[in-house]
């Protein structure tokens, strides 16, 4: 056998061995597969009819169509009117209101002027002018004056100054009547001054309504006696005479020349003569008398 033949025989043997080995491997794999496969149950010979479940067909849900709204006729909108132009505000009128005790209306700015009427408490009046601490008002178709300290004023900042009428000055009586007894006097209101008792009494309709101690003139400056009438009133006044000058004397009511009834703050020795001829009163009594008495009130002075 030559070399070529030997090589061919060797190749044939090798191929045969590989084929045999392949068959063995395939057989082994088939056996393993058969062992690991689960056994299948034998089919039952009794056949059972499975119930048939009837399922109703699903009907489509009808779609609800909302009714169409009937269009309403449009309401015409009236044109918007332009707002009216507001009128300028009316300035507040200057006024006074009488306080709790009311107030006399006079013909001029002072208690020396005559009384022409009365404003009762709470009554208003239109202010048209001013002079010092008095208001000029429109009163009953004419001009009147009221004292500023017994009224409340409103909106009076721009009230103009007014020219007052001339101040009346009563003539000094040529004859001074002698003092009268109280039962002889028929005045509605009058004032009695008793020099011996150093008292003053206010009478109304014959009835004593108030009495107070006073201080009248010293022996060298006596208080005159007789029947007099208040001719002018000042809420405060300056007084002077030989050896004295006093400012702002309160509640002064002159009844004869420079003799007057007035309040005193510089002494309290009432019941004893102390003055230069005037009738001195405690300040609170003088205030009451000032508000009670009017110009023209009778003053009866006696021993």
Description:
This protein is of the alpha+beta class and 303 residues long. Among the domains are: 60 residues, SH3 Domains (SH3 type barrels, Roll), CATH 2.30.30.40; 121 residues, L,D-transpeptidase catalytic domain-like (Beta Barrel), CATH 2.40.440. The chain contains 2 helices and 16 strands. It has a 5-stranded antiparallel beta sheet with strand order 6-5-4-1-7, with no helix packed on it. The chain has a 5-stranded mixed beta sheet with strand order 10-9-8-16-11, with no helix packed on it. Strand 13 and strand 14 form a beta hairpin. It is rod-shaped.
In short:
This protein is an alpha+beta fold and 303 residues long. 15% of the residues lie in helices and 32% in strands.
Any idea what the radius of gyration is?
Answer: 65 Å
Helix content: 10-25%
> Termini distance?
203 Å
Number of strands: 16
The H-and-E topology, N to C, reads as HEEEEEEEEEEEEEEEHE
Q: What is the name of the CATH class of one domain?
A: Mainly Beta
Average pLDDT: 83
The CATH architecture of one domain: Beta Barrel
Estimate what percentage of residues fall within beta strands: 25-35%
Please name the fourth-level CATH homologous superfamily of one domain. Answer: L,D-transpeptidase catalytic domain-like
Shape by Cα distribution: rod-shaped
Counting DSSP H or I runs of 4 or more residues, the number of helices is 2
Largest sheet, spatial ordering of strands: 6-5-4-1-7
**Class from helix and strand fractions:** alpha+beta
User: CATH topology of one domain, which one?
Assistant: L,D-transpeptidase catalytic domain-like
Main sheet specs: 5 strands, antiparallel
């Amino acid at each position: 056998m030559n070399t070529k033949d030997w090589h061919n025989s060797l190749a044939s043997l090798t191929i045969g061995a590989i084929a045999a080995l392949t068959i063995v491997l395939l057989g082994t794999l088939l056996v393993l597969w058969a062992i690991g496969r689960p056994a299948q149950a034998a089919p039952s010979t009794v056949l059972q009819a499975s119930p048939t479940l009837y399922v109703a067909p699903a009907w489509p849900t009808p779609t609800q169509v909302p009714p169409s709204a009937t269009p309403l006729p449009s309401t015409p909108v009236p044109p918007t009117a332009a707002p009216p132009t507001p009128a300028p505000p009316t300035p507040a009128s200057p006024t006074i209101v009488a306080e709790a005790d009311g107030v006399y209306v006079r013909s001029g700015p002072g208690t020396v002027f005559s009384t022409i009427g009365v404003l009762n408490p709470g009554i208003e009046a239109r202010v048209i002018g001013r002079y010092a601490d008095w208001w000029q008002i429109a009163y009953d178709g004419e001009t009147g004056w009221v004292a500023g300290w017994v009224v409340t004023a409103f909106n009076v900042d721009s009230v103009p100054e007014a020219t007052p009428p001339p101040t009346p000055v009563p003539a000094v009586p040529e004859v001074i009547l002698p003092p009268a007894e109280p039962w002889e006097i028929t005045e509605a209101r009058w004032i009695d001054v008793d020099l011996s008792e150093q008292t003053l009494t206010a009478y109304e309709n014959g009835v004593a309504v108030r009495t107070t101690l006073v201080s009248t003139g010293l022996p060298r400056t006596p208080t005159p006696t007789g029947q007099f009438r208040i001719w002018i009133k000042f809420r405060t006044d300056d007084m002077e005479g030989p050896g004295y000058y006093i400012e702002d004397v309160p509640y002064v009511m002159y009844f004869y020349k420079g003799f007057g009834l007035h309040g005193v703050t510089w002494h309290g020795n009432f019941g004893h003569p102390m003055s230069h001829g005037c009738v001195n009163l405690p300040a609170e009594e003088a205030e009451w008398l000032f508000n009670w008495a009017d110009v023209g009130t009778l003053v009866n002075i006696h021993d």
